[in-house]
């Protein structure tokens, strides 16, 4: 589903942070602990605010501020990412068979939103212009190999083995088991635009020759009973590149999601839409269909799909029923909150598990030392708000938050008065190139240093807030 890291609407701390500095200024708000509202009270308050936006086409583009007691004490850029299970990411590209590599990409896809499966929906802080976040993961290279060759009888023109890449020289056949050695993955994201609200991200795993990038932007509409979240115009999905496979690129588009349960006081995420994974180089595509609520409104959390060969020059198949049977290489089915499997031709009768999400947990991040975080680095920037929320000083947290938001508006007025155009630090454009952000030389250097656990970084010359 689409990440909400860059929405402008409201859908570990360091003492020297800007937020902490703001909290030290004289204020009429007393720093006293307040009663923490229960979830029902929070939702009732949230619903009251949302009702003002019934009929608004995109509440994600509307500027309004939520009180601190409705927020999760976490910055958006820290919370929203796609590496909840990084071991599935580093396993992409291990197989010599193109259809198996597509299944490896799908395994990653079904684990990228594990936070929704294991935790409740929440609203982190909005990102401010120029704010950035960086982290590493260290994960075992332990995801099971996917091997369809021994699981099906060959059919003329439909065998997975007929899709070997002819343009690349494959590495030696992979072993049936993996070493389980630790692999480092680095992640860098920056809020590149405020109007429209957009953030760019880059994931790098040089040891395995895999990278991912994209722009995060959402559009949201309140229907009266739920919030429908769809990708914004600059969000074309996740683009994964496999260097060792002749730079194969996979585009993974986000489906629409619904945030429901507002009326009954129990938030939940449901998905009812199509999404697509395409690889023009191998000419293999996947259509996934997420099924909406079933009879009597009970969520099914079902997903179905097909993996098939397609013509990139004539990519006109948008529904699973549009795909000719002779082109189908695998069928996908399962529960995206529990377990997803694939079946193979000709009978499609024996399921093979792609991933079982039930025993999985979100993998923790490795963060820069607090002393090396910059003033506009997410955790440090919002630390004053976080400290106040954790101390249940919600009025004070709201005041600090509003001061930070006003500072961003003041900086914007200064740029407008001087005719200065904002430029991101780590990415070459605020919303360009289309769908696929490019790193600046400094962005590339930051990621190289992160791979060596070097966190030192000069402070930004220009701040957006």
UniProtKB/TrEMBL annotation:
Highest rank taxon of the organism: Eukaryota
- Entry GO CC: cytosol; membrane
Membrane-traversing stretches: none
Residue spans of biased composition, Low complexity class: 1-34
Please give the Pfam families that the UniProt record associates with this protein. Answer: Oxysterol_BP
Q: In the record, which residues are listed under signal peptide?
A: none
Query: Which residue ranges does the record annotate as region Disordered?
Result: 1-35, 147-181
Q: Kindly list the GO molecular function terms attached to this UniProt entry.
A: sterol binding
Of which family is this protein a member?
Belongs to the OSBP family.
UniProt name for this protein: Oxysterol-binding protein
């Amino acid at each position: 589903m689409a990440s909400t890291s860059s929405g402008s609407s409201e859908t570990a701390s360091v003492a020297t942070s800007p937020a902490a500095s703001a909290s030290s200024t004289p204020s009429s708000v007393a720093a006293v602990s307040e009663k923490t509202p229960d979830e029902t009270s929070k939702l009732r308050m949230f619903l009251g605010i949302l009702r003002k936006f019934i009929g608004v086409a995109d509440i994600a583009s509307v500027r309004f501020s939520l009180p601190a007691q409705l927020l999760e004490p976490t910055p958006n850029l820290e919370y929203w990412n796609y590496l909840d299970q990084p071991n599935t990411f580093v396993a992409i590209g291990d197989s010599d068979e193109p259809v198996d590599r597509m299944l490896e990409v799908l395994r990653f896809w079904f684990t990228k939103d594990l936070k929704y499966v294991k935790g409740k929906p929440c609203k982190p802080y909005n990102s401010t212009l120029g704010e950035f976040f960086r982290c590493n993961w260290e994960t075992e290279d332990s995801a099971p190999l996917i091997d369809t060759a021994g699981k099906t009888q060959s059919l003329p023109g439909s065998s997975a083995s007929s899709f070997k890449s002819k343009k690349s020289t494959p590495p030696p056949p992979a072993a049936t088991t993996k070493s389980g050695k630790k692999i480092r993955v680095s992640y860098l994201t920056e809020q590149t635009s405020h109007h429209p609200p957009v953030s760019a991200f880059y994931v790098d795993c040089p040891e395995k020759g895999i990278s991912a990038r994209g722009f995060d932007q959402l559009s949201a509409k309140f229907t009266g009973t739920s919030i429908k979240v769809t990708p914004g115009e600059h969000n074309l999905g996740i683009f994964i590149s496999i260097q060792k496979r002749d730079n194969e690129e996979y585009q993974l588009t986000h489906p629409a999601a619904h945030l429901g349960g507002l009326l009954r006081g129990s938030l939940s995420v449901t998905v009812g839409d199509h999404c697509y994974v395409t690889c023009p180089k191998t000419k293999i595509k996947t259509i996934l269909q997420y099924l909406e609520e079933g009879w009597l409104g009970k969520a099914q959390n079902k997903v179905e799909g097909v993996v098939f060969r397609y013509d990139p020059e004539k990519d006109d198949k948008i529904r699973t029923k549009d795909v000719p049977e002779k082109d189908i290489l695998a069928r996908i089915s399962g529960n995206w909150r529990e377990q997803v499997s694939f079946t193979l031709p000709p009978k499609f009768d024996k399921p093979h598990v792609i991933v079982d999400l039930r025993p999985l947990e979100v993998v923790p991040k490795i963060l820069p030392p607090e002393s090396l975080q910059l003033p506009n680095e997410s955790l440090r920037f919002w630390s004053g708000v976080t400290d106040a929320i954790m101390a249940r000083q919600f009025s004070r947290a709201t005041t600090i938050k509003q001061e930070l938001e006003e500072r961003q508006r003041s900086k914007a007025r200064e740029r407008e008065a001087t005719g200065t155009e904002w430029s991101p630090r780590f990415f070459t454009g605020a919303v360009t190139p289309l769908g696929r952000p490019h790193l600046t030389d400094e962005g590339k250097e930051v990621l190289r240093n992160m791979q060596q656990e070097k966190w030192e970084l000069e402070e930004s010359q220009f701040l957006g807030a």
